[in-house]
Amino acid sequence: MTRHAEWTHIESLPPGGRISPYIHWTSAWSHMGDALAAQDLLQTDCPWLARAIRKSLGDAAEPWARLLHNVLPHHALPSTEKTEGAAQEETPGVVHRIPVATDTVILGIIDDATAFAHERFRLPDGQSRVDYLWLQSAPHDPGKRATPFGKEFDRHGVEELIDRSRRGRSGEIVDEEGLYRAAGALDMGRGTPQSLARAASHGTAVADLAGGFSAAHVPADAAPQPSRNLMEIAPDAFDLAIVSLPERLVMDTSGTFAEIFIILGILRLVDHAEQRSQREGRDYPLVINISLGLTAGPRDGSSLLDRFIAAIEAERPRDRVPIRFVLPAGNFRQAQVHAVLEAPLDEAAPPLFWQILPDDRTPSFLEIWSSPLRERPQHVPFDVAIQPSGHAIAAALETVPLDGVFDLFTDEGRQIARCYTQWVPQRSDRPASAGRVRVTLALPPTVPGQPGRPCATPGAWRLLITSEMADVSDAGWPLDLVVQRDDMIPGYRGGGRQSFLRDARYTRVDDRGVTVTRDAPGPDGSYSHVRRAGTINAFASAPEVVVVGGCYADTLEPVDYSGEGGLEGLGLRAVDASAPSSMRRMRAFISAAGSRSGSRVGVGGTSIAAPVMSRELAKAMRPMNERPKLSGVPLLRRSPDDTIPPPVLPVGESTPERYWEKSTSGSSALASGAS
């Protein structure tokens, strides 16, 4: 029996692309609770940082502030009553041309729960190297410096926690389990997965690779030795500033609320470094590692996170040490989540399908982006039709207005999809184009959470995208299609299953059974719609950040899964450099710290390569005492495209042994092969 479906206009959205389709979808499925005003979230006493907030965000954070209760446990939110006597720490006047701190660098980590009391984050004498800690989902405690939510600790607060948790005759043993419970970092009663209750924690591994040291690295009674080269550094020169994100945020791999929590984390880290610099009269280098990733988004530097990072760089005084942001390239090169349409996709064209998996308990999203346009069109310049699995007729979305919401209903009145049409302006520093058109298709889970809830039919949904214009370039061609991330992180129970794009011309392996890592034309000379190029991490698209791919430690070749950029026509940037993310093809992990002192776990992915780069970048920044040298790092040479593998991170002799394996002669295979 032929089943029909048609689109219905539901509502209009505010112009300017400020409303996230993911947040709009979530709000439609969630109960709206009490609000936190955006101005309560974005506070700083630093004048240039306040300018960066106004310049990049404006009022765009307000919708996110209204929905924080969807991510944070109730006890992490502040009380509605104002706390008396909680005064802000006084900030000295702005100090210009303060000397650079050549003996210390601050490493910022924004990630999953981090075992901040781990022995690898302490000095040989037992003192903590954690200079700042924000537990975003811990019970709210305004303390001396009120946080918008959660709980924060300075170095003294972390030391107090460790001292209260010492056991044994001389206090040589730290009860880490009890410490994390007392701090609010571990609470099995929250109803969410607790990373610090498992043997492995992503945040701990990242922090270890970025700034972890063995307790025996420097003997307590050893006399200080002069550094022989840029790559040597002592543990006391690496101060850690850690932001632990909420569990629900990490569990939602589609990143519904990720940007605002990351932005708030950056704000607190930069504000902390600024407060310390002004208080001590020294300009501390700051490297911020964000080992998180998405597949979909603008990916052209125009997202709120991109604009915030760009504003920080633009507003920071020119005579100050620059702040470095390091992000991974992503792990989705082979996931078939990206496609490029160079011509209209009609019935006669090679078909392109969106494969929706069964037993998916989370929504699936597909974004369709136009190429940059010089002016805002009156309506969506291309027609989108989607043929649901099991339906004989495709539902066409033709000549619809921008900034609208449309639902797809069957003849029986059952909702099976939603579509968002938006005009997304470009960054103000890119005057060549006014913006891009984004069409976001949203499908409900294939398993309804409750009886009567909408659900999508699993299977192959065919996509048809055409245009009435004679010159399709005027309609925004070529088009960029990206499936949003929707997988399930080990240890979490989100229930997501990653949907993907299908094209019969796409080749996973060659005739020898070897994985294909580069796009190449088929026998007829045509390319598949589905591409590996353009699979770069959507968080890592700002030109101001350092993007790190993964490589094998033994051969220095790029790993098969490392995200690829380089589609300059669509505004996508390239990967800057590669760092080890796997030891070898048959051993796809690197050793890093587990959740408790003395434990080691195997970790992999470009999110592990990023902290390796952060560590080396921090080493390169620290000894330099002349500001012009800090404006760039020679080992990060950018290329205009991504047709060749990015340069591999040079690793010095003093790099910890876990980054490589010893050869039979005892020399480092990685160090000897570094370019």
Automatic annotation (TrEMBL):
<dbReference type="InterPro" id="IPR036852">
    <property type="entry name" value="Peptidase_S8/S53_dom_sf"/>
</dbReference>
<feature type="compositionally biased region" description="Low complexity">
    <location>
        <begin position="663"/>
        <end position="675"/>
    </location>
</feature>
<feature type="region of interest" description="Disordered">
    <location>
        <begin position="622"/>
        <end position="675"/>
    </location>
</feature>
<dbReference type="GO" id="GO:0004252">
    <property type="term" value="F:serine-type endopeptidase activity"/>
</dbReference>
<protein>
    <recommendedName>
        <fullName>Subtilase family protein</fullName>
    </recommendedName>
</protein>
<dbReference type="GO" id="GO:0006508">
    <property type="term" value="P:proteolysis"/>
</dbReference>
